[in-house]
Structures are given as C-alpha cells and as structure tokens.
Design brief:
The chain has 8 helices and 4 strands, in the order H-H-H-H-H-H-H-H-E-E-E-E. A 4-stranded mixed β-sheet has the order 2-1-4-3, with no helix packed on it.
Length: about 190
C-alpha cells in the first residue's frame, strides 16, 4: 500500500521523528517541526480524500466530524462539495478574515481592553475604577452613529475642549468628568 500523505506532509513528519530521536535537539527546532507537521497535515489532500472515502463507505457527517475533532457543521463547511465549491468557500473565508477592522485607530485615549492590559487588570476592574472616579472615561461618538468608550490613564493627554482637531467636544467642562461625550466628524 502506498502513502496517503502528500510529500510535504511526509517530509515534515519524518523531520519531526528525526528530531524526536535526537536527545540534543534544540527546543525551538522541535517547536518549528511540530508546527510544520500540523500545518502540512491540516492542508493535506489526504484529509479530503479520507472524508470522501468515508462518505462513500456509508459514514455520515456526525461520524466524520467526531473523527476530525470538529462539529458536523464545521466538517461540512470544510469538506462538503466539489473541489471548486470547497476552494470558493475557503477563498471567501480568507477574504473575510483579512478585511481591516471597522474600529477607527485614531480615537483619543485607550479602549477598555487596552487600559485593562496596560494596568494588568480585567476590563471589569477598569469599569469599576471609572465608576469610583479613579479613571476618566469618555464616550466617543462618530458621525455615523457608532460610539466607543475610551479610557484615559494618568498621564494620558485629554482631548482639548476647543479645537479644530478631528475629535472635538460639545460643551464639555474644562475638567473632564466620567460622562463626557466626544463627537467626531468622519
């Protein structure tokens, strides 16, 4: 019986086995070899071939999904249909995953998640500190109606109350409060 793995998968697996036999194999090389095997096996046509053989032998999607460690819907999305249909689905998925985020990157202050990471606390702790007045937060409203909570840590520059900048305040007091709202025209 011949090999069912692609040449790239077989070579990556052989390299990992070689490293496994070397007592002095560098740890980063071992990690690279493990990741290469996973990468090649995930993309190997042997998986699709095995799925098609299992379907022809009478197995259903629940059994195929269980064998692959997936949910039936995910298994169908990955392997159901012709080669062209599968390629089209995968291509559409890649296009969606590379779209840029719709969240503006030039907002004042920091997001709650960024502030939490900077402080080494949870997002809930940031909200609690805002409520207690230890941190300043504002809601930034964009012209299209979207709004974002922004947190200003000690030392962060607060947006000016007058101005021609992209972010301007509407009738905000000189000393910011936790409920200030910033409007921006985009």
């Amino acid at each position: 019986m011949g090999s069912f793995l692609s040449q790239q998968s077989a070579e990556a697996l052989a390299r990992l086995v070689r490293l496994d036999g070397e007592e002095s194999a560098p740890p980063l090389e071992r990690m690279r070899a493990i990741r290469a095997v996973l990468h090649h096996l995930d993309a190997d046509p042997a998986a699709l071939s095995s799925v098609r053989d299992a379907l022809a032998a009478g197995s259903g999607w629940p059994e195929i999904a269980e064998a692959a460690g997936l949910k039936p819907t995910a298994a169908k999305w990955r392997w159901q249909g012709t080669d062209d249909e599968i390629a089209a689905r995968l291509s559409a998925g890649r296009k969606r995953s590379i779209r840029p985020s719709s969240v503006p990157t030039d907002l004042p202050g920091r997001s709650v998640a960024e502030a939490a990471a900077q402080l080494g606390v949870s997002a809930q702790a940031v909200y609690l500190q805002v409520t207690r007045g230890r941190l300043i937060s504002r809601t930034v409203e964009l012209a299209d109606g979207r709004s974002y909570k922004r947190v200003f840590l000690p030392g962060d520059a607060l947006p000016s109350t007058a101005g021609t900048s992209a972010h301007s305040l509407d009738d905000s007091p000189e000393v910011p409060t936790n409920t200030d709202r910033i409007r921006t025209d985009r």
